[in-house]
Automatic annotation (TrEMBL):
GO terms for molecular function: electron transfer activity; heme binding; metal ion binding. Residues 31-51 are annotated as: Disordered. Signal peptide: none annotated. The keyword DNA repair does not apply. The keyword Heme applies. It comes from the Bacteria. This is Cytochrome c. InterPro entries: Cyt_c-like_dom (IPR009056), Cyt_c-like_dom_sf (IPR036909). Residues 31-45 have a biased composition (Polar residues). Keywords: Heme, Iron, Metal-binding. Residues 56-142 form the Cytochrome c domain. It comes from Schinkia azotoformans MEV2011.
Length: 144
């Protein structure tokens, strides 16, 4: 009976350890790919050869979205910025925010009228310089 218990624990440890290692290797690949940094990704070809493909760099006007964490919830498709799907695409925010929220975008970024953005920006307010960078980038995005 004692040997059966020891064998059970050995197999349990091996099983959990293998599962842990397997899950960690998958999460490391996922964690590095969508970073929007200049990381390399692999792409399979028709002959199953792996070719290293550099990830797209964040444009200079889009860097503010990366720095402030906006891309965790939002995308800006017109600037080529892929982000989260929780919030709307911000490509036309420069044009649409005033009609939707009743104030110009620079005022909205200082004091948002939506509950979600109030809590997000309230916890990490933008400086006037950052607001100007965001507004300029969104203006560029709306013109594309």
């Amino acid at each position: 009976m004692k040997n059966a218990i020891i064998i059970f624990f050995v197999f349990a440890l091996v099983g959990f350890g293998g599962g842990y290692l397997f899950s960690q290797s998958g999460s490391q690949e996922q964690a590095t790919a969508p970073d929007n940094a200049a990381t390399e990704q692999t792409q399979n070809t028709a002959d199953d050869e792996k070719v290293e493909v550099p990830a797209p760099a964040v444009s200079s006007e889009g860097e503010i979205f990366n720095q402030k964490g906006c891309l965790a919830c939002h995308s800006v498709e017109n600037l080529g910025l892929q982000g989260g799907a929780t919030g709307p695409d911000l490509s036309q925010a420069y044009v649409n925010v005033e009609g939707k929220h009743g104030k110009p975008i620079n005022e909205f970024l200082k004091e948002p009228t939506s509950a979600v953005m109030s809590s997000v920006i309230g916890g990490n307010p933008l400086t006037d310089d950052e607001i100007n960078k965001v507004v300029e980038a969104l203006k560029i995005a709306s013109e594309k």
